[in-house]
Design a protein that fits this description.
The structure holds two protein chains of two kinds.
Chain A (H helix, E strand, L loop, with lengths): L11 H7 L8 H7 L2 H16 L7 H25 L1 H6 L7 H4 L4 H22 L2 H25 L3 H10 L1 H10 L4 H24 L1 H7 L4 H4 L2 H25 L4 H23 L3 H31 L4 H4 L2
Helix pairs in contact in A: 3-4, 3-10, 3-16, 4-7, 4-8, 4-10, 7-8, 8-9, 8-10, 9-11, 10-11, 11-14, 11-16, 14-15, 15-16
Chain B lengths: L13 H33 L9
Classes of the chains: A mainly alpha, B mainly alpha.
Chain lengths: ~325, ~55
């Protein structure tokens, strides 16, 4: 008996049968698994959380901590894609993701996501502190298990509660530097938490038929588009004071306050526009306008806070 | 044991080999970057104390 048998030349049918077990995803496919656009938001909000921390920050440790938080967020996105590959394949928005597109096998995505999850948590624990690492681990658990595996398939309030996972990064960023959290970082958590429902529901309104086909109980599918429009308006109105709160109750300054007020009013006006326009192309455009503006809203507010923190560090500020 | 008991190994196309090589290169670069990151972070964590020890 010999173990070193010659490889058998496969027939074309055998090739077809074997091929699905082999994936040839490129580095770009793996990058896409990390949901890079969500990662941008996480990096940005966690950076603001870090920079609002008192005292100096070692730039190398700060950068590495931010990297760990970003990779942890990406890993949870990867595990989300692994679990929801079946749903993703049914929706046009997600059907080109690496797993439904066939460029990466589910098992590869699971291994990739788990490795990055464990690696990012351990790395953050070793370079920053174990409180921040535990918080990052909880965030990954919350997003993958509580949101993806449970809430998303169970309740129309899925993205309301699940939105907490996306709202934690400013607190993790602050905690990575200080080992604790403060009121301001909690207010940024609250800001993203309240921002998430109108942001996602605006998209879900347009894509409700796809969510219905995939069996995901999004609010427009369960409660109908009109009830969703009303909910979006209420959340957008609530977002005005919540957006202003870091300036009124905590360390954010006047520049942030002005930006938060103006952006909050614009978002509420767009939510009202969506509430009024309920039919046809106008309703669709209003939903997309709100969705796009809500992204600008979050970047605008956190950008304003970033500017406030970075301006005093610029060279001409030191001349005073 | 005859050869037919072994699983059949699919022949790779030129495109698949190219993609596999590109992925291997990316993995190599990633591991290299990780080594540099761990080294730099270790030095940053140790700081000036790296030389502060009795001979």
């Amino acid at each position: 008996m010999t173990l070193a048998a010659e490889p058998v030349a496969p027939s074309s049918s055998a090739l077809d049968a074997e091929r699905p077990t082999i994936a040839f995803g490129t580095a770009r496919d793996y990058y896409e698994l990390l949901k890079p656009r969500v990662m941008q938001l996480v990096i940005f909000t966690a950076l603001v959380g870090m920079l609002t921390a008192p005292g100096p920050i070692n730039p190398i440790i700060g950068f590495a901590s931010l990297l760990a938080i970003a990779v942890g967020a990406g890993a949870s996105g990867c595990l989300n894609m692994w679990y929801d590959a079946g749903i993703d394949a049914l929706m046009t928005r997600t059907s080109k993701r690496p797993i439904p597109a066939g460029s990466i096998q589910p098992g590869e995505a699971l291994a990739f996501g788990m490795t990055l999850s464990i690696g990012s948590v351990l790395f953050l624990g070793l370079i920053a502190n174990w409180y921040a690492a535990a918080f990052l681990a909880f965030t990954i658990f919350f997003y993958v298990v509580i949101y993806t595996m449970w809430l998303k398939h169970w309740t129309a309030q899925n993205i309301v509660i699940g939105g907490a996972a996306g709202a934690f990064p400013p607190m993790i960023g602050y905690m990575a530097i200080t080992g604790s959290f403060n009121l301001e970082s909690f207010l940024y958590f609250l800001l993203i938490f309240v921002w998430t429902p109108p942001h996602f529901w605006a998209l879900a309104l347009v894509k409700s038929h796809e969510y219905a086909r995939a069996g995901v109980p999004m609010l427009p599918v369960v409660a109908g588009p009109d009830a969703t429009r009303a909910q979006i308006l209420w959340y957008a109105l609530a977002l005005i004071p919540v957006g202003m709160a870091p300036a009124l109750l905590s360390g954010a300054g006047y520049f942030y306050l002005v930006v938060a007020t103006v952006f909050g009013l614009v978002l509420a006006a767009l939510a009202y526009d969506l509430y009024r326009k309920r039919e046809g192309d106008a309703a669709r455009k209003a939903a997309f306008r709100l969705f796009g503006t809500s992204i600008l809203y979050l970047f605008g507010l956190f950008g304003a806070r970033l500017v406030e923190q970075l301006l005093p560090l610029l060279p001409w500020s030191l001349l005073k | 044991m005859s050869a037919e008991h072994y699983p059949e190994i699919p022949q790779l196309t030129a495109e698949e080999i190219k993609r596999r090589n590109a992925r291997s290169r990316a993995l190599g670069l990633f591991l290299g970057a990780l080594v540099i990151l761990f080294f730099v972070v270790t030095i940053a964590k140790l700081g000036g104390n790296v030389l502060n020890r009795p001979l």
